[in-house]
UniProtKB/TrEMBL annotation:
GO biological process, one term: calcium ion import across plasma membrane
Segments forming domain Ion transport: 135-394
Positions of transmembrane segments: 134-158, 192-210, 231-251, 257-275, 296-318, 359-381
Cellular compartments annotated: Membrane
Protein name in the entry: TRPV5 protein
Gene: Trpv5
Keywords, ordered alphabetically: ANK repeat, Membrane, Metal-binding, Phosphoprotein, Repeat, Transmembrane, Transmembrane helix
Mode of membrane association: Multi-pass membrane protein
Coiled-coil residue spans: none
Organism of derivation: Callaeas wilsoni
InterPro entries: Ankyrin_rpt-contain_sf, Ion_trans_dom, TRPV, TRPV5, TRPV5/TRPV6
A GO cellular component annotation in the UniProt record: plasma membrane
């Protein structure tokens, strides 16, 4: 019952009342230390009161609980050394990490806890000591891996075509080699080494990604921008395309260029995932993700309807015409592609003025230009501008959350020998087996004096404004202007004199 009440107090809107009641209940707890403590009993979701305060974004309760956990080591003048208990905060030995819970929640208030002590210092320590070097090494390794895969695709086994052409539009001169012909020369064996590296890399990607999907859940794993959801979809699809290409190569099936092309595009687009490790590029990837999966996905439905309708109309109009003179609409798939290019203004309106054009082509193209170019494209630009304005206010906050998510991910993937536990064990100070983070705070002794100066200047300015209003209401317009001019000069001297007198006296 006491643990349930503690969880309810964390969710209370009256933070001051909740903190007092929280202390009152804990004062009756018999097992204040150890696993039987009320503060360490989780709820049905596996969250202790401390973790629940972080997930709900209750910064007041979180700071209150952290103040209870801290230990003042020593104090000398303005310098104070404090030990903060990071037992539940550190994700090193936690199955349900506190940091991962914060970055995976949809509440913006929860991400503000990342700027509080000691979470901010702990994340900075982890990222600077281990996270950034390992992440940069992983980015370099992935780029070299993609270069290897690209070279294997560029020099894939091809042979000259021996069959006759069946159409004047047939432009194929090389075809894919069979499996027995693909690995004969020394260059083929060198390419085989690169292909084996590519396949092994794809298998490693699937082995690393699938356990996280099963642990977190597909909806949460792929749907969170901070956790890198879109990039997880990209890298898993890339690995699947690599395996499909391998199967087609081993079975000598033609058409391996389709999965190979998809893999090249997806693999190189996944390089943008590593931009989150750099403060200059990280916020831009957030902006791109928000626009693609927000505005662009909704806009594509409207664009598909417009392109389908007008492409069908163009194909019907030119269905009876000679395709040699107007080849942009010679069949239905080419009509769809040409209409897509017209929609994005990549090409101008295809028309051969040496022959007679159908009258309906001019009418349909006029309507298409008005709807697509003038209306829908400008609508897309306006939508993206609005999204940019909304995301710009929180892009730095989202980037810091991405850094935390990346740090937790690396800490889970890497062996323990490469990532030791952060902090200091409490045994060194006689505080048990808990782990602490040592933070040195400096209290500015002039802070209270500066507050006094500010209040003095503010009070004097308010007095001057009140005097001006009283003087203005009591005199005529001419006298009011003269008195206001003289009063402003006198009060400015008086305010400046009083302020400098306070500074001189305190100095």
């Amino acid at each position: 019952i006491g643990n349930t009440v503690l969880h309810i107090l964390v969710l209370q809107p009256n933070k001051t009342f909740a903190c007092h009641m929280y202390s009152l209940i804990l004062s009756y707890d018999r097992n204040k230390e150890g696993p039987g403590s009320l503060e360490l009993i989780p709820n049905n979701e596996g969250l202790s009161p401390f973790k629940l305060a972080g997930v709900e974004g209750n910064t007041v309760m979180f700071q209150y609980l952290m103040q209870k956990r801290k230990q003042n080591l020593w104090s000398f003048g303005p310098l104070t050394t404090v030990l903060y208990d990071i037992t539940e905060i550190d994700s090193w030995a936690e199955d349900q990490s506190f940091l991962e819970l914060i970055v995976s929640t949809k509440k913006r208030e929860a991400r503000q806890i990342l700027d509080l002590t000691p979470v901010k210092e702990l994340v900075s320590l982890k990222w600077n000591m281990y996270g950034r070097p390992y992440f940069c090494f992983l980015a370099l390794f992935y780029i070299l891996y993609m270069v290897c895969f690209t070279m294997c695709c560029v020099y894939r086994p091809l042979k000259p075509r021996t069959g006759n052409r069946t159409s004047s539009r047939d432009n194929t001169v090389y075809v894919q080699k069979m499996l027995q012909e693909s690995y004969v020369t020394y260059e083929d064996e060198l390419r085989l080494v690169g292909e084996l590296i590519t396949v092994i890399g794809a298998v490693v990607i699937l082995v690393l990604e699938i356990p996280d999907i099963l642990r977190v859940g597909a909806a949460k794993y792929f749907g969170q921008t901070i956790l890198g959801g879109p990039f997880h979809i990209i890298v898993i699809t890339y690995a699947c395309m690599i395996l499909v290409t391998m199967v087609m190569r081993l079975t000598s099936t033609t058409g391996e260029v389709v999965p190979m092309s998809f893999a090249l595009v997806l693999g190189w687009c996944n390089v943008m995932y590593f931009a989150r490790g750099f403060q200059m590029l990280g916020p831009f990837t957030i902006m791109i993700q928000k626009m693609i999966f927000g505005d662009l996905m909704r806009f594509c439905w409207l664009m598909a309807v417009v392109i389908l309708g007008f492409a069908s109309a163009f194909y019907i109009i030119f269905q009876t015409e000679n395709p040699e003179n107007l080849g942009q609409f010679y069949n239905y798939p080419m009509s769809l592609f040409t209409t897509f290019e017209l929609f994005l203004t990549i090409i101008d309106g295809p028309a051969n003025y040496d022959v007679d054009l159908p009258f309906m082509y001019s009418v349909v193209y006029f309507a298409f230009a008005i709807i697509a170019t003038l209306l829908m494209l400008n609508l897309l630009i306006a939508m993206m501008g609005d999204t940019h304005w909304r995301v710009a206010h929180e892009q730095d906050e989202l980037w810091r959350a991405q850094v935390v998510a990346t740090t937790v991910m690396l800490e889970r993937k890497l062996p323990r020998c490469l990532w030791p536990r952060s902090g200091i064990c409490g045994r060194e100070f006689g505080l048990g087996d808990r782990w602490y983070l040592r933070i040195e705070d400096r209290v500015d002794p002039n802070k209270h004096k500066m507050m006094r100066y500010t209040e003095a200047f503010k009070a004097q300015d308010n007095y001057d404004k009140g005097s001006e209003k009283l003087e203005a209401n009591g005199d005529t317009l001419c006298k009011k202007e003269l008195s206001a001019l003289s009063l402003s000069r006198n009060t400015s001297r008086t305010s400046s004199h009083r302020g400098w007198e306070i500074l001189r006296r305190n100095t």
